[in-house]
Specification:
Strand content: under 5%
Shape: elongated
Number of domains: 2
Radius of gyration: 15 Å
Number of strands: 0
Largest sheet: none
Number of helices: 1
Distance between the termini: 46 Å
Helix content: 10-25%
């Protein structure tokens, strides 16, 4: 494969989450407002604004 250079934060993140089902290719944790529908979310429209088709907490669709 192609060699990859990581900074310290990325290395720590990869070590902590490698093989974890919540680990994403960009090493970010799932969160409400990231535009990706994760387990436990009813919706995720990519922001934390309510009244736009998805609640600010991603738990309900108004």
């Amino acid at each position: 494969g192609t060699p990859v250079t990581l900074d310290l934060a990325e290395t720590v993140n990869l070590t902590a989450y490698a093989g974890h089902p919540g680990c994403r290719p960009d090493c970010t944790k799932p969160r409400c407002g990231d535009g990706i529908l994760d387990a436990g979310e009813a919706c995720d429209d990519g922001n934390d604004v309510g009244g736009d088709g998805c609640a600010a907490d991603c738990l309900s669709v108004p």
